[in-house]
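LAB NOTEBOOK - FOLDING QUEUE
OPERATOR: T.R.
BATCH SIZE: 2
PURPOSE: Compare the predicted structure-token outputs for two unrelated chains run back to back under identical settings.
PRIORITY: normal
REVIEWER: second-year student, initials M.K.

ITEM 1
FIELD SEQUENCE / FIELD STRUCTURE:
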Amino acid sequence: MITVQPFVKWAGGKRKLVPTILSLIPPAFNRYIEPFLGGGAVAFTLKHTPMLLNDANAELINAYEVVRDDLNALVQELDNHQTNHSESYYYEVRKQTPNTLTKLQQAARFIYLNKTAYNGLYRVNRFGNFNVPFGRYKNPRIYNRDNLEAVSLILKGARLYSLDYAVFLRE
């Protein structure tokens, strides 16, 4: 079995809890529903079809959609970020307004900032602007192509939502 890892760092992620969570899941079930997707550690371990995956963070869900639907173009954008990576470039990308970018550019920006920001944090101010400082990584790896391909395949069997969890669970 291929071990598929989250492609983003996520505070409060369930990666370390996966063995415990798996021990509590029944041996058979019809669908997997995840109201707080975050990095997706449980979903990527289960690889269940169908999956209904949700997170209130619309930028995160957009990144999942682009990984699922347009991986090759995303990799090209990420390669561009990797090539240009520096502290000044980071702040240039950080100050971009996501809603002025294409969905593809938004996803690449999100992943790049996630992998190069301080501790991989995601934080926005009251105006919705990403405001995490530059991380001091010597040579950050923005993505792992093999892992992204595996994630993309898993996501083909998923429906993605960006709703408040209470609304999502009523759907």
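ITEM 2
FIELD SEQUENCE / FIELD STRUCTURE:
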Amino acid sequence: QAVGGIGRAIVSNTGSGGFLVLLAALATALCLVLVCIYMIRAVVVILLVAVAPVALACHALPQTEKVAALWWRATAACLGIQVAQALVLVTAVRVFFAPDGTNVLGLSAVDGLVNLLIVLCLLWIMLRIPKWSERLVFGSSGGPTKIVTQFVVRTVKAVA
């Protein structure tokens, strides 16, 4: 129902002006990017499940403990993104897109520009949630490349 309401908000308001058509095209592009992010997240979850035994075995040594912690953070982030995006979507649809078309928060629900702007803001927030969770996973450590490089260097030093 939520996706249908957003789809109706995008499609029903495109016939009244050129600027609204551009906003609807932008909303459609953001929806496509969001679908791509959904697919990427599904692949990442599958990869995290595949490397789970090795990642959990990394708890055995102090040198590999950071890799195990990274796996835990990445798994929690992938599962948390889904929950956060669902909460944002359901909350926004229930608050801003009333089925009877009444005014919500002083905004006219019949105005196409307002509906498209609300949809664009909603999609933008949903696209930012994975970026925010990426910061939580990698923090100030410099990203995945630096973590893997540090792991390899520490492992080589421990073996040598």
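REVIEWER COMMENT (ITEM 2): DSSP finds six helices and no strands in the chain.
FOLLOW-UP: none requested
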